[in-house]
Amino acid sequence: MRAVNQRGCVTATAAERAYLDHNATTPLEASARQAMIGALGLGNPSSIHEEGRRARAAVEAARAHVATLLARPVENTVFTSGATEALALALQPDGPDAYLLIGVTEHLAVLDGHGFARQRCEVLPVDAAGRLRLDQLDAALCRTGERAVVAVQSANNETGVIQPIAEIAERVHRAGGRLVCDAVQSAGKVDLETATHEADLVVISAHKFGGPKGVGALAWRGATMAPAPLLRGGGQERGFRAGTEQVAGIVGASAAAQAVPTRVGAMERIACLRDTFEAELRRFAPDAIVFGAGAPRLPNTSAFAIPGLDAQIALMALDLAGVAASSGSACTSGKVRPSHVLAAMGVDPTLARGALRVSLGPETVAADIERALETLHALLQRARPRAVAA
Ligand code: PLP
Fold first, then answer.
1. Is the pLDDT of residue 48 over 60?
2. Hey, which residues are catalytic here?
3. Where does the pLDDT of residue 113 fall: very low under 50, low under 70, confident under 90, or very high at 90 and above?
4. I need a labelling partner for 203 at 20 to 30 A (CA). Which of 67, 92, 307, 357 fits?
């Protein structure tokens, strides 16, 4: 039941919430939940008795499904505790001369540079639409050649802007380097094989496509691309990642991976909803800016700002009205920071501070979008009553 609180804001019960924050995390797929419950009591996959063998069989079946999603050989697919760890595994220098080239709009999990010293790390600019400047990549590759490890995301978490991975890979390979692709935001939204086909190493995180949090995977094409072990010890994951496997989480990731074609199949409808959202937003706020609109984007993501509308106030009003959205600022451990992504795209800092993001999922319906629009319209009418179109 919806109600109006003392300040005249529409409030909503938990049952009718519109979850529009799928780029932060996705609701757990029912099949993943069920598979995980079934796997919670399994043994240690390294044990040789029957309980252990059953757990090993579950992990290896899961590996086959995740390798299929990543379109990489099953023997080159390693489970990790999430994408951050998978990226740390992938981003290790393979010699003292190795050089890391990264896009400026990468997630903090890449921008950290992991095993690379600061002076062996170069951050490459993007254009106003958020796409990597290929001329700058070429120039950097000229300087670094085969020493280059290049890390570029397939799609941005804040704006949904898609990077031209095939063109980037072609340039990196011509120079003799290797390409690590953070495909976290693409899994479950676009065809992953097409999006990342030419990359040498690919990283995903299960909770972005209906799986549990705390499970990721790294996969590579050929044996020469194999990373050096990061966590050493018991030799699990063929020595690439020691530590007893998170069996139930891995099984959940596998169930979610099997449901990915269905999620991707829903994206045509989701893209229509997202486009409707942006068109309606522009109807009552013609000065609204949609970030990255000039580039190919994920079908589910809309990052925007309405001049004069404060992002934190808007987020609170949306939350009260039952809409879970997020600000364009990267929110890390509860701290809201100015968005390095929007800054890199040359967005005015005042406008960037008002940035909001809605990210849709397969279960999003038109009523969810309408509720977000209603709330934003009402807020704007209060903020600037005369200027807002009815
Ligand atoms: N890369 C991108 C593009 C992301 O959006 C995220 C999480 O938001 C990560 C990496 C880190 O993933 P995880 O939380 O699994 O470590």
1. yes
2. 331
3. confident
4. 357
The angle at the Cα of 292, spanning 334 to 284, to the nearest 5 degrees, equals 85
Pocket of ligand 1 contains residue 326 by CB under 6 Å: no
C-alpha–C-alpha distance, residues 140 and 123, integer Å? 10
**What CA–CA distance (Å, rounded) separates 23 from 269?**
17
Yes or no: say if 202 and 196 are a contact pair by the CB < 8 Å rule: yes
Which residues neighbour 51 within 8 Å (Cβ) at sequence distance 6 or greater? 42, 43, 44
Q: What separation in Å is there between the alpha carbon of 184 and the centre of ligand 1?
A: 6
Query: Does the Cβ of 153 fall within 6 Å of ligand 1?
Result: yes
Q: Provide the pLDDT confidence category of residue 335 given band limits of 50, 70 and 90.
A: low
DSSP track, 168-206: HHHHHHHHT-EEEEE-TTTBTTB-HHHHHTT-SEEEEEG
DSSP letter for each residue of 64-81? HHHHHHHTS-GGGEEEES
DSSP 3-state of 102: strand
Residue 225 pLDDT > 80: yes
Beta strands in 237-310 (DSSP E): 289-290, 301-305
Gyration radius from the chain CA atoms: 22
Q: Would the pTM count as exceeding 0.90? A: yes
Q: What angle do CA 345, 389, 159 make, to 5 degrees?
A: 20
